[in-house]
Amino acid sequence: MGKSKILIVEDEASLAEVLTYNLQREGYEPVVAREGREGLRKAQTHLPDLVILDLMLPGIDGLEICRQLRASHRTAKIPILMLTAKAEETDQVIGFAVGADDYVTKPFSVKVLLQRVKVLLRRASEPEADSDVIESAGIRIDKRGHEVSVEREALSLTPTEFRLLETLMKQPGRAFTRHDLMDSAVGDIIVLERTIDVHIKSLRRKLGDAGQRIETVRGVGYRFRTDKASE
Ligand code: CA
Q1: What pLDDT score was predicted for residue 230?
Q2: Distance, CA 219 to ligand 1 centroid (Å)?
Q3: How far is CA 202 from CA 69, 168, 207, 223, in A?
Q4: What is the block-wise mean pLDDT of the chain (231 residues), using blocks of 10 residues?
Q5: Ligand 1 centroid vs 126 CA: distance in angstroms?
Q6: Residue 83 Cα, ligand 1 centroid: separation in angstroms?
Q7: Taking a C-beta distance cutoff of 8 angstroms, is the pair 173, 137 a contact?
Q8: Which of 37, 49, 79, 169 could be a cystine partner for 59, CB 3.0 to 4.6 Å?
Q9: 80 shares a domain with 44
Q10: What element of type H or E holds 44?
Q11: Which residue range(s) make up the domain with 188?
């Protein structure tokens, strides 16, 4: 097995150096880009196993890089760990919305960062097979059989409802915009954002009590709520 290649996109030279040194010491193969466009290009050509992405960069910023990596098939699945400054809390939220997998706030300890890197790499290398079934709060989705049940009672969902539920449940707690949901559940058919509301309404009704798990996030869209007490 080869070394995991990690792209560091960071304009602060001293930080890039510290990260390079420590990642090397942990047995990774770091590649550095000091500017936004260079970072994007290196991600596309090197296809790293993980990207450590600073938010504020000369050229194009971290959010735009994140968006572009997610938009392309070849780079869509590369885990992205964002580096943000404390004052940029709203940017963290946006970071998740454009597809970052995790973030650390500057200043951070290298130890914490290395742990996050390890977790993300491990998560990415897990076989997709066990994600055929998603189960939470009594709702069970079997992707292979295209079946959904609530408390073992089978439900009949439309393909769009099925994909909506799958999208929400795959990342519990994440707030999806209607636009995100159209992208992943409706595909490239052009629909009005209201259409998502109609599908969600129908999906909630079919789920019965469990439908309350699909929460409306004001000003954003929807999310699947989990809480430990009921699982
Ligand atoms: Ca920076």
Answers
A1: 40
A2: 29
A3: 33, 15, 9, 16
A4: 90 97 97 97 96 94 92 89 74 68 87 92 72 86 89 88 91 86 67 80 94 92 74 37
A5: 31
A6: 8
A7: no
A8: 37
A9: yes
A10: helix 36-46
A11: 133-224
pLDDT for position 187: 61
Residue 227 DSSP one-character state: -
CA 13 / ligand 1 centre spacing (Å) = 10
The residue from 93, 125, 157 where one domain ends is 125
Q: Look at residue 170 and tell me if it is in a domain.
A: yes
Asked if 49 and 124 touch (Cβ cutoff 8 Å), the reply is yes
The rounded distance, in Å, linking the Cα atoms of 40 and 72 is: 11
Tell me how far apart the alpha carbons of residues 191 and 77 are, in angstroms, rounded to a whole number.
26
DSSP state of 60: S
**pLDDT at residue 228, rounded to an integer:** 45
What CATH number does the domain containing 102 carry?
3.40.50.2300
Q: 15 CA to middle of ligand 1, Å?
A: 10
pLDDT digits (tens, 9 = 90+) for 135-160: 888 899 998 888 999 998 999 988 88
Q: Is residue 149 part of a domain?
A: yes
What is the distance in A from the centroid of ligand 1 to the CA of 76?
A: 23
Number of domains in the chain: 2
Ligand 1 mean position, distance from CA 177 (Å): 27
Ligand 1 centroid vs 188 CA: distance in angstroms?
A: 35
Task: Give the tens place of pLDDT for each residue, 118-130.
Answer: 988 988 887 655 5
Q: Looking at residue 229, what is its pLDDT?
A: 41
Same domain for 54 and 146, yes or no, is no
CA atoms of 52 and 36, how far apart (whole Å) = 12
